[in-house]
Structures are given as structure tokens and as C-alpha cells.
Design a protein that fits this description.
- There is one protein chain.
- By secondary structure, the protein is of the alpha/beta class.
- The chain has a single domain, classed as 3-Layer(aba) Sandwich (Rossmann fold).
- It has eight helices and six strands, in the order E-H-H-E-H-E-H-H-H-E-H-E-E-H.
- Strands 3-2-4-1-5-6 form a six-stranded mixed sheet.
- A hairpin with a 5-residue loop joins strand 5 and strand 6.
- The protein is globular.
Length: 254
């Protein structure tokens, strides 16, 4: 047990590998399942957190099954299936608009590497929007039926994602931390990158190069302003770096 890690009251965890991660497709709000490897990553994340001496009082996740399933498997591994879980659309992945379902490398061939990097990793540039008659418009999905249509995105930049995640963080998650509760958030590459930007005070320019690997817990100690005093990944450093580099190379694959 890593007794030092046990003092981290917040952990962010990106879901395990999904079917579309494996196929190198833009996923966004499309609801795809974990692969067998993704399920293994979710359970390994649970083992890493348990080995580090971590435990949780509450958990939060999105409305997308790859994050929900990762949370279930991680909590099952930690014998914490009983803790309260809240699901909310504000923790969903970034909406990739008309790019959803496209192969990332093929998008580079069509639009150019610089443009696709800006859409994937930039801060304020949204991809081309999905139309409201498209299956990619959230208003056509019953899980978003009770949400004000004005709040539902047709496409988002990372800046847009931060603007929807931050109110949820401040209003729904921080109060649990203020009560001394230990919090696990299982979500997505971009909803968590947005939260990392806020917690770690990452600049608009630097966030472009931040890549969050699947299935690797990031543990935080927080200061009195609920910002990161310390942050670290749990697990083998070489393996974590290899997974980060794999994310970076997605648009280079044939």
C-alpha cells in the first residue's frame, strides 16, 4: 500500500479503450462499448487505486456507457460498488460534430494535419457542426430529452467543454470535497482535459500538448481553492509514457 497516495481525495480516470479508440475513430457523444482490452484497463485502474491505498465515498461519471462501464469495473475491483454514483451529461466527451464516426488519419488526409490537430487538441476551435436532423444531434437521443435544447451542443471546442464542465464541478462536486469526501470522476479524454486545465492551471497554449491515456488514474491533492497542490499518475512511468505517445500518434496511423 502506498500510504502517501492515500491522502489524495480526488482521482480522475479516463475510460478504458473503447471500440472506436481501437478503430481510431472520432467518437464524441456516440455511445460505444469498451473493448476487452478496455475492460482489462478498467480493472487494472481499480487495482492501481487499491494498491495505492485509495478509497472513495462518491463517484461521478457521464451518460456514455464506456465511462459508466469503466467506473463499474474499477469500483468492483476495489469492492466499492456500493458507493453513491451520479451520472451527468456535463461530464460527457467533447462533441466532435460532423467529425464523429470519421477515421482520424483519414481526416488528416482530407483536412490537413494542422487543422485536425487544432480540432483534436486545440483550445478554442470547434470542429464542423452536426446538423439538428443528424443522429449526432443530442436532441435526437432520449437520454438528453429533459435538457434545455439551448444547452445541447452540435460541436464543441475544449473551451466549450470547460464552460459546461466547470459549473458542474463547482456546484455538484466541490461540495462533496468540502465535506471531506473522497471523489472519483470517471469520464473522457476531453472532459477530463478541461478539468485538468482548471485544476492544474494549464495555459490555453500548453493544453494542446496534454494527452490523457485510457485507464490511468490521475490523483490529486487540492489546496483551499480546490486547485491542484499536487497531481500524479498512478502506475508504471514507462507504461504511462508509452500510452501518452500512443494517443499523440493517432492521427499518424494509416
Amino acid at each position: 500500500m502506498d500510504e502517501d497516495a492515500a491522502g489524495y481525495p480526488l482521482v480522475l480516470l479516463r475510460h478504458g479503450e473503447s471500440e472506436w479508440n481501437k478503430l481510431n475513430l472520432f467518437t464524441g457523444w456516440r455511445d460505444v462499448r469498451l473493448t476487452a482490452q478496455g475492460e482489462l484497463e478498467a480493472r487494472e485502474a481499480g487495482r492501481l487505486m487499491r494498491k495505492a491505498g485509495l478509497s472513495f465515498d462518491v463517484a461521478f461519471t457521464s451518460l456514455l456507457s464506456r465511462a459508466i462501464h469503466t467506473l463499474w469495473l474499477s469500483l468492483d475491483t476495489m469492492d466499492l460498488m456500493w458507493i453513491p454514483v451520479t451520472k451527468h451529461w456535463r461530464l460527457n466527451e467533447r462533441h466532435y460534430g460532423a467529425l464523429q464516426g470519421r477515421n482520424k488519419a483519414e481526416a488528416v488526409e482530407k483536412f490537413g494535419a494542422a487543422q485536425v490537430k487544432e480540432w483534436r487538441r486545440g483550445y478554442a476551435t470547434p470542429p464542423p457542426a452536426a446538423t439538428k436532423d443528424s443522429p449526432d444531434y443530442p436532441g435526437n437521443d432520449p437520454r438528453y430529452a429533459g435538457i434545455n435544447p439551448a444547452e445541447l451542443p452540435c460541436s464543441e471546442s475544449l473551451k466549450d467543454v470547460l464552460e459546461r464542465v466547470l459549473p458542474y464541478w463547482n456546484e455538484k462536486i466541490v461540495p462533496h470535497l468540502a465535506l471531506g469526501k473522497r471523489v472519483l470522476i470517471v469520464a473522457h479524454g476531453n472532459s477530463l482535459r478541461a478539468l485538468m486545465k482548471h485544476l492544474e492551471n494549464i495555459s490555453d497554449e500548453a493544453i494542446v500538448e496534454v494527452n490523457l491515456p485510457t485507464g490511468i488514474p490521475r490523483a490529486y491533492r487540492l489546496n483551499s481553492d480546490w486547485r491542484a497542490a499536487e497531481a500524479r499518475f498512478l502506475g508504471d512511468a514507462a507504461e504511462i509514457q508509452a500510452k501518452i505517445e500512443s494517443v499523440q500518434k493517432q492521427t499518424q496511423q494509416a
